[in-house]
Amino acid sequence: MLIWAVPALWAVPSISSAEPSYARFGRIAVKETIAKYGAEVVDYRYDGRFPLPDDMAEERFRLWLRKENREFGVTVHMTIVPSTNRLVSIRWESGTS
């Protein structure tokens, strides 16, 4: 008797290769924060999208930075136009944990 070992392909979870919607703004947040603070990004967290007036939204990220043996948190507030994904402004808030 011959038995074939066939992997159960239907049991393998599918892996989506699509980027999350905030990925583009996350890359910009990291790049601009490094340029502004001259520090290494140690950790990164996406806090979410928050609605603003006039059909705008805020993408919010928390970055943990290291510079000259000192670590500190920075919140990056990015105002965007969701319908076009256009970046309007970036604002940093230091000293956040």
Automatic annotation (TrEMBL):
UniProt xrefs under InterPro entries: DUF3889
Organism domain of life: Bacteria
Protein name per the record: DUF3889 domain-containing protein
